[in-house]
UniProtKB/TrEMBL annotation:
PANTHER family in the cross-refs: PHOSPHATIDYLINOSITOL-GLYCAN BIOSYNTHESIS CLASS F PROTEIN, PHOSPHATIDYLINOSITOL-GLYCAN BIOSYNTHESIS CLASS F PROTEIN-RELATED
SUPFAM superfamilies, per database record: NAD(P)-binding Rossmann-fold domains
Domain of life, source organism: Eukaryota
Molecular function GO labels: oxidoreductase activity
Protein name: Uncharacterized protein
Keywords: Oxidoreductase
Pfam family for this entry, one: adh_short
InterPro entries: NAD(P)-bd_dom_sf, SDR_fam
Length: 44
């Protein structure tokens, strides 16, 4: 899945968080749409 770009909402917890992590591991470029910037920064 390299060279794919995905936008994920709800990345700071739950299914959104795990989905984002897995897609990054698979080589995707992940754009996180989050309400809580502090939690989002912690995921980087």
């Amino acid at each position: 899945m390299t060279e794919k770009t995905v936008i994920i909402t709800g990345c700071t917890s739950g299914i959104g968080r795990e989905t984002a992590r897995e897609l990054v591991r698979k080589g995707c470029r992940v754009i996180m749409a989050c309400r809580n910037l502090e939690l989002a920064e912690a995921l980087r």
